[in-house]
Specification:
It is a single chain. It is globular and about 55 Å long. It is an alpha/beta fold. Strand 1, helix 3 and strand 2 form a beta-alpha-beta unit.
Length: 290
Amino acid sequence: METAEQIKEVVRQKYGAIAEQPTVGPADANGCCGPTLCCGPETVANVAIDMTVGYDELNGYVAEADLGLGCGLPTQFAQIKPGDTVVDLGSGAGNDCFVARAETGEAGRVIGLDMTPAMIDRARKNTKALGFTNVEFVYGDIEDMPLPNNLADVVVSNCVMNLVPDKQKAVAETFRILKPGGHFSISDIVLKGELPAGLQQDAELYVGCVSGAIQKSNYLQLIEENGFTNITVQKEREIALPDDVLKNYLSADEIADYRQQDKGIYSVTVFAQKPEGAATAACCPPGCCN
């Protein structure tokens, strides 16, 4: 089994390659949470897996920033208000940041955080082309964010937390950067029932947004254990893995077992709030905190 750093490097390389491709719209996107499992083994590269949802009817949508990498619409559920400071974790080419900016208006501030330099470069180019002065992109790791305490009114993220090896640190960091009373809306992939080992152990499928996922109950428990309240599943839908994908990892009997009703892969959008008056114990790197 690959180490956390090896998994991060797989994700960084694959998403870097996506960022360096010519501009595509969502229908043509080669994203690993998109219509093809491009980052998995070649034997499943052309099998359609429906994880994406359409952004094109949301205010602020920018087609050039939509690489088809998401599995939900967290900004649609994020209750962003004019003047808010919003942080997007795993911001990619800037899609959710630009939708969030339409909600915050010119009085707000939007910060995208991504660990892939090529994605940061692409997002900054998109921002410059749009002429936005209150949207910025920062290079950094979600497990150790280079952002100050109590910064954000709202945190959003789209199909990224499941890629993070240490989800405990990622959730704790999210709590830290939120203002007391602030909240997040995060779309992610979770599991119900045990995913077969053949799928669970494939690091390439981290980039396909499957193997990095954890049980839905554990996901919600992790959020609660880090001090969040008002935890709500805002939306949930099942993700179907075709037999043509499963047969690369599982026997016929294992596929039949996997198809039982108590097992599956789901896209969820989760809301949670940092309580008013909550203390922030941790601090970000030196020179960063307010």
